[in-house]
Design brief:
about 190 residues, alpha/beta, five-stranded mixed beta sheet, globular
């Protein structure tokens, strides 16, 4: 089960996903709200924190979560403070009850990862793509439009048309033809 712990939060934060099951993890703990209490509303323990990328709105609560639950943090670049273990492009990562392929998708930030489970029909897209063809901004440090387009294209080629759910770093999750939202983001990124 995937729950957005940041639902209803009015502060500047990313979505923060609790993925429960065999390996209970938080994907991106968010920022500027008490995520620890929200985690404890659902579970008593965590097995890990997994990051899509390390922008402050995605990792502001990281220390609070690691202190409260004593867990390690997994992300693309272990040289970044707070990231204990690296996840390589193409590596399989267990989230909840399913295996996800980690896809290195820079363009918004160099350490950006998306996580895709063909078996579950789920994509955790971070800030690469959003609902209705929106896509990650490229005006921040490490942002690059051409690289972002390449990452969106790579993701679009990888996912199946029967993708059931896309959980994004901001805004609502997409449960109606999410693969088309990814393809639309690729077209929109080329037009702007």
């Amino acid at each position: 089960m995937i729950t957005n712990l940041a639902a209803g939060v009015q502060a500047f934060t990313s979505n923060a996903y609790l993925v429960t099951g065999e390996r209970t993890v938080v994907v991106d703990p968010g920022a500027n709200f008490d995520v620890v209490d929200r985690i404890r509303d659902h579970v008593d323990h965590l097995d890990a924190v997994v990051l899509t990328h390390t922008h402050p709105d995605h990792v502001g609560n990281l220390e609070a979560v690691t202190d409260a639950f004593g867990v390690d943090v997994w992300g693309f670049d272990p040289s970044i403070e707070g990231v204990d273990h690296g996840i390589e492009d193409g590596e399989t990562v267990r989230l909840g009850d399913h295996d996800y392929v980690a896809l290195h998708t820079p363009g918004h930030k160099d350490d950006h990862l998306c996580f895709y489970s063909p078996d579950a029909g789920v994509l955790i897209a971070g800030d690469l793509v959003f609902q209705n063809g929106s896509f990650g901004r490229t005006d921040l440090e490490e942002g690059d439009r051409e690289t972002l387009i390449e990452s969106i294209d790579r993701l679009a080629e990888r996912i199946d048309d029967d993708l059931a759910e896309m959980h994004t770093g901001h805004g609502p999750s997409v449960t109606s033809d999410p693969a088309e939202h990814v393809r639309l983001a690729g077209r929109m990124a080329r037009q702007m």
